[in-house]
Amino acid sequence: MPDFCDPSTRFHPLRSDEDAPIEDLMTARVRAALTWGQLQGRLAHVPAQVAHQFCAALARLLLVEALTGSGFSGANSWFSAWFSGLQPVPDATAHVAAPPSLVADTLLAELSLSAWAPLADTAIQIRAAAHFHRGEGAPQGERGDAPAFAVAEAARLAEPPADDRADDWPLAALDRLHRAAAASPHFAPTERSYQLLPLPAGPVSFEQTRTATPLWALDLLAGALIARSAPATRPLPLPGAVRAEALRPELWSRERAIITAEAAGEAAQRLSDQLDAAHASVREVHEAMTVLRSTSRAPLLYRLLAGFGPLRPLQIEKALGVSKNGVRDLVAALVKAGLAERAAYEHHTIIRALPRARRATLAAEGESRSVETSSGATFAAFDAAMADVERVLARMETARE
C-alpha cells in the first residue's frame, strides 16, 4: 500500500501507531531549556551598545520571516531595497491576506511597544526609517486589517487558561500556545485542495496553493508569553519558534511537544548567534573609532546599519533625528574609519556597513573606502554576507549534532 504521508512533517499516524517515546521528548526539552537559559543569562547583562545592534538584527529577522511566511518568497534578497523604497515587492507566490507594507507596519508598531526598552527604542528608530510604498501589492477582496487581526488573535490564544497548573518545563507556555493554535482556524494549516485538469493523456490532479497562515504573530508573542512565568526573562520575539508542522491536527501529543521544543531551541540558538555577532561588531567599532569624540553618534549609526541593513541618508535622518549635515558628518566619520561605504542604487545614495571581511578585501586591493557602486551591488553584497552567516551557522549546528 503506498504511503500518502504529508512530507511536511516527520510525525504522522501512517508512520507510527503510537506516540513518540518519552525519552525523545525529554532529550529535546533539555537541549531547548539549556539553549534558552544561556541566551537569557547573557541578555541579563548585555551592554547597551550590544543590545542596540542585537535588537536591530532581531527586527530585520522578524520582518523578513514574516514577509516570507506571508507569501512573499525570497524576502531576504529584496528586503533592504524594498524597505528603502527603491524596489517594489516581487509578485506573491502564494495566497496572501495583506500587503507587505501592512505586515511590516504592524510588526514594527508592536515591537515599539515591547516591555524590553532596548527593543522598543530600536523598533521606533527603524519604524521612523521605513520608506517602502504603503499599500502596494494589496490583495483584492481581503481584510485590510488582517495583520492587526492576526496579532489580536495570537494574544487571545496566549491568554493562560483558568486551570493553568505549574510545570517544571520552563517553556511550557509554548506547548499551550501550540495546542491552542492547532485548534484555531486562523493559524492551523489549511486543508489541501486539488484541481482536476483534463489533459489529452487523461485527467491530472494538481494541488492548489495553500493560503499563508500568519505564524509570525505567534512568534511575536512567544517570548512575552514565556516571560509571564519567569519575570527576569527578556520578552523577546522568537522568529521560527512556531512551525506549521507542529500544528498538524493528526500529531500525537509528545510528537507535537518534540517539534515545539526543537523549534524553540533552534530559535534561541539563532538569537544567541546574533548576540555573538553584535558583541564582535561593537568591539570592532570601539577599536576603529577611538579617535572620534566620545559623544559622537557615528557608532550608533554603524550598529543600526550592521544590524538592520543598508539605509538611505534620508532614512538615517529620520531614524536618528539628525539634520542632513549631521548625517553627512556621521557617514564621513564611518567611511574614514573604514566601517562603512557609500554606494549608488538607481541614482540614489545608499550607506552600508562594511563587515570585517569586506574591509580586509578593500585594504588588500588598495581601493578607496568610499566606494561608488552601481545598480544593486550594495544590497547584493549585504545579502551575500547574510547568506554566508546562515551557511556558517548551519555548519555549526550540524557539528553540534
UniProtKB/TrEMBL annotation:
It comes from the Bacteria. InterPro entries: WH-like_DNA-bd_sf (IPR036388), WH_DNA-bd_sf (IPR036390). SUPFAM superfamilies: Winged helix' DNA-binding domain. This is Uncharacterized protein. It comes from Hephaestia caeni.
